[in-house]
Design brief:
single chain; elongated
Length: about 100
């Protein structure tokens, strides 16, 4: 969650500030930037998923084109198309998805 992200970044910044060797400090900065970029990518895909979900909830249309009277939250999340859209956007942007175990 947000706490673990903040704690991880705070730890990396603390290590950078404590380092006296300029070369090692540069390496630590690059590592922190890489981790930050990964968190940023995760956040971007989460926002995209929420936008797709919200769009499906507002539309009330199913993927086969039939109109539904009411689409509930859980159902709209399952049928919003995020499982198709997000992997393609991630590939297009050159973002390498992390394994679920990481």
């Amino acid at each position: 969650g947000a706490t673990s992200w903040m704690e991880a970044m705070q730890s990396k910044v603390q290590a950078i500030l404590a380092e006296d060797d300029k070369e090692r400090k540069s390496i630590l900065c690059n590592e922190a930037y890489s981790v930050f970029s990964q968190y940023e990518n995760v956040e971007a895909t989460s926002i995209l998923e929420m936008a797709l979900w919200k769009g499906k909830m507002k539309s009330g249309w199913t993927n086969d084109g039939t109109k539904r009277q009411a689409v509930d939250r859980g159902e709209s999340r399952c049928i919003c198309g995020a499982n198709v859209v997000i992997p393609n956007v991630v590939t297009f942007l050159g973002i390498i998805p992390r394994d679920e175990d990481d």
